[in-house]
Amino acid sequence: MGWEALEHWGKDARRLERLTSGLLNDVWRVQVGGQLAVARLNTRSGADLAWETGLLQHLDRNGMTVPVPIPTTDGRLFVEGLVVMRCLAGGPPETEGDWRRVADTLRELHRLTQDWPQRPGWRSSIDLLQADRGTRIDLTAMPPEGVARCRVAWARLAGRPTCVVHGDVNPRNILMTAHQVALIDWDESHVDVPDLDLDLPHNAADLDADARDIAEQASAAWQAAVCWKDEYAVMRLARVRAI
After folding, report:
1. What topology does CATH give the domain 96-238?
2. Quick one: pLDDT at residue 243?
3. Which of 38, 175, 185, 204 could form a disulfide with 103 if both were Cys (CB 3.0 to 4.6 A apart)?
4. Burial of 172 from C-beta contacts in 10 A (0-12 / 13-18 / 19+)
5. Is 45 exposed, middle or buried (0-12, 13-18, 19+ CB in 10 A)?
6. Helices and strands (H and E) in the chain: how many
7. Sign of torsion, CA 105 108 112 115?
8. Do 178 and 98 contact (CB within 8 A), yes or no?
9. What string of DSSP letters covers 61-81?
10. Is 164 helix (H, G, I), strand (E, B) or coil?
């Protein structure tokens, strides 16, 4: 159906300005019910979108600032891959204090999602110690030596509690004001070990030396695997220590 699905949010619903467009998502600023919103169109399955929208509603109910899905006129949270979300204000973190607020927000996410079910089709870093594929990850496409290095990094996370991780914590996906920290773009969120979210500038999560090394190595390995084989993925794999 494509963007024609926007009509399910009302007769006045319309696209205003493209924000991003790529292999995974086509994102626009839209008008719905006379208000500005953000709409994202992709090819993810209904089960995947149900998991993501349900997660965002849960976080919103528990006081986190997230892009809450706006229902259609008949109450659905997505139609044919289209999701419409609340528009959020703010700018990226800039100071060490800003990043410490981000770390606090991530820890709240992790606290609120203990024992959360895995996103349909996804694998955690621990699962990938044995499995080769999970959603966007295909370890068979990576150099075997690189896969071995990634698995050594992930093995250090084994046995730890899991929760939802945002999965793509970077300044573009954080909107801050004086009163709130909002995490946006939940495409890479899934259930995993929270360390993957805590490799932050300024060591904002206050990890000790060993914990920081574990987080840095596991995060670099994950980003290499999920993005393989673009330039960024190659750069991140180079950060994973040789065996």
Report:
1. Aminoglycoside 3'-phosphotransferase; Chain: A, domain 2 (3.90.1200)
2. 84
3. 204
4. exposed
5. exposed
6. 5, 10
7. positive
8. no
9. HTT-B--PBPP-TTS-S-BTT
10. strand
Residue 172 CB partners (closer than 8 Å, separation 6+): 92, 185
Q: What is the CATH number of domain 2-86?
A: 3.30.200.20
As a whole number of angstroms, the distance between CA 50 and CA 240 comes to: 34
**CA-to-CA distance for 93 and 147, rounded, in angstroms?**
32
10-residue stretch averages of pLDDT, the chain, 243 residues long: 94 94 83 96 95 98 98 97 97 98 98 97 97 94 98 97 97 97 96 98 98 98 95 97 91
| pLDDT computed for residue 20 by the predictor | 82
Specify the pLDDT at position 28. Answer: 97
Residue 224 and residue 203 in contact, taking contact as beta carbons nearer than 8 Å: no
Q: What is the dihedral angle through the alpha carbons of 214, 129, 189, 44, rounded to the nearest 10 degrees?
A: 160
Residue-level pLDDT at 83: 98
What does the block give as tokens for 186? 């939940």
With 0-12 / 13-18 / 19 or more C-beta atoms within 10 angstroms meaning exposed / middle / buried, residue 3 is: middle
Element containing residue 218 per DSSP (H, E): helix 209-227
The domains of the chain are located at 2-86, 96-238
* Rounded-to-integer distance, Cα 56 and Cα 85, Å: 10
- How far the first Cα of the chain sits from its last, in Å, is 49
Rounded Cα–Cα distance for residues 196 and 165 (Å): 7
Q: Which two tokens stand for residue 213?
A: 């090394």
Tokens at 118, concatenated: 């895995």
